[in-house]
Amino acid sequence: MSFKPLFAKSLGAAPGRLHMAAHSHHLWPDASFAGQVECWDDAARLADRKWDRIMGELWPAAQREVADELGTGDPSAIVFAGNTHDFLVRLWSAAPRRAGGPLRILTTDGEFHSARRQFARWVESGDIVLTALPADPVDTLAERLAAGAGEADLILVSQVLFGSGRAVTGLERLAALSRPEGPWVVIDGYHSFMAAERPLGSLGETCFFLAGGYKYAMSGEGLGLMHCPPGFGPRPPITGWYAEFEDLSLSPGQVGYAADAMRFMGATFDASAIYRFLHVRAMLAEQGLTTARISARVAELKALLLPMLADTVFGEAELLNPPGTVMDARFLAFRHSRAAEWQRRLVEADCITDVRGDVLRVGLGLYHDEDDLERFAALAKALA
């Protein structure tokens, strides 16, 4: 069965393109267009009163969808922002500094660029003390982080590493360390949200979780999301006026905060991503497309593709995340010294993949079928 009709607008906009990067910029389904239009129509129809609908109806609906997807059952613990970097800054401002002075962060050398770059700059400015453990071997990463937690104030680790697609198991060990007074544990779930079933679950009792709509949520930019464990950071120093909406009993001049995840809220925002997200979620529900079913479809496509690539240049590469591992990523990560060259030549053939150093990533999603796999295999053979 092909799900291409759900993506007719995106596929039709560039009919010659072979987009094999669903793990990066996931093509938008037609449902997201309907959401974008509804956002505009609401702004025209309701004007100032659009915020009553956004915050009173759409925001809570989106919170419920995210909590259901995470498996936490706690919509009140969900807050949205324009991107996850916004939350990274707010977490840095709010996390306890148990020894005074700079925040002490423990992380890995396999984190996404927004964290890597920001941490590096904060080290330069003296705002943090950073320890970064090697991400490999991934099987012992959670254990090594727990053993090295020591005096760390904040521990950040990806649930699925963006470079290799390998899942980090044993996060329960870190969750057991996380406390309101420190350390805080932050899970970057960008490659597990809507790619793995209930990726947070009971970990949400003590762990923060960051993700967004750009990848497997198929909703595009502007939908950063964070799960906030209750009791952690009741008064974030970096704060916007939306964070006090539910605390209306204060005298003028006092800085109030909502008791739930809204305490990490910023200020006025573009709500179109929430509209898109809700329309995409409704589309998936209508089609019976759960995360488990989509993952099974992607696993099927990967199983078909790999034998096709065996006698191409990809057969010479190291596959970092073979299928069948815990929490399979939605992409295949091939390591080879020629990865950047292959990516460039594929782009010249109007085939989109992406490269991270010497790793080329091939991402699969609902808008792929067997014909796409055969076309990609033919392009791969031409790379020899």
TrEMBL record:
<dbReference type="InterPro" id="IPR015424">
    <property type="entry name" value="PyrdxlP-dep_Trfase"/>
</dbReference>
<protein>
    <recommendedName>
        <fullName>Selenocysteine lyase/Cysteine desulfurase</fullName>
    </recommendedName>
</protein>
<dbReference type="InterPro" id="IPR015421">
    <property type="entry name" value="PyrdxlP-dep_Trfase_major"/>
</dbReference>
<dbReference type="InterPro" id="IPR015422">
    <property type="entry name" value="PyrdxlP-dep_Trfase_small"/>
</dbReference>
